[in-house]
Amino acid sequence: MDAFRCNQCGYETLSEKYYCPKCRNSSFSRLDIEGKGEVYSFTTIHIAPPKFADKAPYQVVLVQLTERLRVTGYMDEDIDIGDSVSFKEIQEGAYIFQKSS
Amino acid sequence: MQTYIHGVGMTQFGKLEDKTLKNLLLDASIEALEDAGKPDVDAVFVGNFMGGSIYNQEILGAIIANDLGLGYVPTAKIEGACASGGIAFRQALLGIMSGEYETVLVAGVEKMKHVSTVEVTEAINAAMDNDSNEKHAGLTFPGFFGVLANRYFYETGATKEHLAHVALKNRNNAINNPLSQFKTETSIEEIMSARMITEPLGLFDCSPTTDGASAVVLSKKKGDIAVRSSAQASGPTEMQNAENLLSIPAVGESGRIAYEKAGLGPEDIDVVEIHDCFSMTEIISSEELGFFNRGEGYLAVEQGKTLPNGEKPINTSGGLLSKGHPIGATGISQLYQIVHQLRGTAPNQVDGARIGLAQNLGGTGSYSTVHILERV
Ligand SMILES: [Zn+2]
């Protein structure tokens, strides 16, 4: 799984930014991260946007992937804060996670 | 330079099928102008979020100037999602402080009840950064606050019942406010068992869609309600970029600047309107604004400190949750309530209120304004 790190202050981000939001530096290095982490928080969405209506209820998770990187993802399993999850794939722009076995 | 609020106006909030967007805008503006003694106005600012996207109506400022015979004065519409009203007020204030204007009319308006829930939800989602993986993950606007609430529960020991107490307080306040959208009594049990929107937030934890408008007249001429300070700040537009999920930095920063400019602190504030788009948001922002320690806002609710007769009355109007949330009008309607509190004529009047604070939030923490008013 790809991520980016600011070469000046170490800020980590999922997508490469024009400028680092912390220090305004513009050079980033590509990181190859394992894609394993813990559920930092989540919600189960019952009232969904039209595109997601047939999937509801589903989980939107905020996953702590590295010390400095959290990623918002999609899951269709019951989960709780602190559960171990791993990155599965990108589907139509969404980061899909699954429970780690 | 000191500025003063000379007049306020507000329409009924709710589902107003027989009123057009223009009706609402003009009704609130006329009330504010008459309350101010029909002064000449040098400019008009309008807060509005979705007039273009779901009502196909822009040029709102020019419509007011024309229909109310204000002359060829400059006007502008301000968009800042749910903070459109607060930002419009601030732009008017800055226009006066620059010396360009003496007296300015600020109005906020929204018409939301004429379209389907799906359409209005799509329009509201414009207040998120949609060029990001978060939208593709199915995150919604309420969903952000659901994620925040679950983490808040995890870290503090707060429960869904604490959120229910916020919703119940604001409903009870709204029952006494003739202009509010919801006036039926409810109970903790009903709130707790209502259908889920985004866990742990149920129907009563989420502000409704609403038609309505509000307006104020602001001037550098002496009046009896002074604007002690105005501040605005921005914050993260994506949930995954929040350094501390349990903080809304735009709220904290706008509060800090407003206190500093006024030479006041949270302890000096007698009455507060906080942007409770969700029950959870009221608690987090009450901490951000320094009324309670971080992670303890839910305890203050439990102890009744935010009730109209409590030590820090919050949302005596009924708040967004029960007064209603016509997006562009909300920030101005908060000022309407604070002005009435300082005049001693508000629903849920706080005895002897002299200094009031209004905080208006846009997006999931993208914008926040804070205004501190004082009776002089
Ligand atoms: Zn940096």
Unreliable segments of chain B (pLDDT under 50, ≥5 consecutive)?
A: none
What share of the residues of chain B does DSSP label as strand, in percent? 15-25%
CATH architecture of the largest domain in chain A: Beta Barrel
Q: State the CATH topology of the domain at 4-116 and 213-219 in chain B.
A: Peroxisomal Thiolase, Chain A, domain 1
Note the gap between the termini of chain B.
15 Å
Structural class of chain B, by secondary structure, is alpha/beta
CATH topology of the largest domain in chain A: OB fold (Dihydrolipoamide Acetyltransferase, E2P)
Q: How many E-type strands of chain B?
A: 11
User: Based on the structure, what is the oligomeric state of the protein chains?
Assistant: heterodimer
Biggest interface reads: A-B, 33 and 36 residues
Main sheet specs of chain B: 9 strands, mixed
What is the overall pLDDT average of chain B? 97
Question: What is the level-2 CATH architecture name of the domain at 4-116 and 213-219 in chain B?
Answer: 3-Layer(aba) Sandwich
Rg result of chain B: 19 Å
Write down the CATH class of the largest domain in chain A. Answer: Mainly Beta
Helix content of chain A: under 10%
Bound molecules: zinc ion
User: Could you tell me the strand content of chain A as a percent range?
Assistant: over 45%
Q: Please trace the helix and strand order of chain A, writing H or E for each element.
A: EEEEEEEE
Structural class of chain A: mainly beta
Helix content of chain B: 25-40%
Protein name (chain B): propanoyl-CoA C-acyltransferase
Organism (chain B): Alkalibacillus filiformis
Domain Thiolase C-terminal (chain B): 236-375
GO molecular function, one term (chain B): acetyl-CoA C-acetyltransferase activity
